[in-house]
Amino acid sequence: MKTLIVSICILFYVAYLHAQTNYYTTTKTFNESGYTYQCDIPPYNLVTLYNKSNKWIYVHSIYKDTGKNFVQDEAGDGIKLLESDTWTRSKRFSIVNSAFSASEKQRIKGHDFNIIMYINSSTGKVDEVSFEFHKSDPFATIPVSVYRKIETEIKKHIWYTPTTVGKKLNYIFYWWAQEPK
């Protein structure tokens, strides 16, 4: 009887460990059905996960006319790049929240991750999305398909109106941290 109980416990433990697979332990490329994602992990272990077709991921935001680097909050007063709106924040949070299953939300409860958008400075549309989290965070147990869903939904449903200054840049960098609920 003890053997049976121990065997059942081991099976549950193995199933639990399988569900906790860390997908992002090393720098690698994920070739999925119809898309390719890149996972970069520098020595400080912050995972950067992004669509391999992204072109802005490691490019500084610059002024198109001068080529000089744009530095936000350079003078401490903030430079407004996007017009204020009343709907994008709640829509962004909703997209992220709905991408995770109930069991995934339970697993990542109490943790947040960074979602980064690269906004087209001419049109205000979101051209690219990337994600950041520590490689030991529970977000490392979430499959690429969930991040892909967030990316496609953001690109489909979120847009902004760039300000005059925002339109002068090659792209507009915008990020937020979120704990999916």
From TrEMBL:
Which N-terminal residues, if any, form the signal peptide?
1-19
Q: Name one Pfam family in it.
A: DUF5043
InterPro entries linked:
DUF5043
Q: Which keywords are on file for this protein?
A: Signal
Q: What is this protein called?
A: DUF5043 domain-containing protein
The species is Bacteroides cellulosilyticus
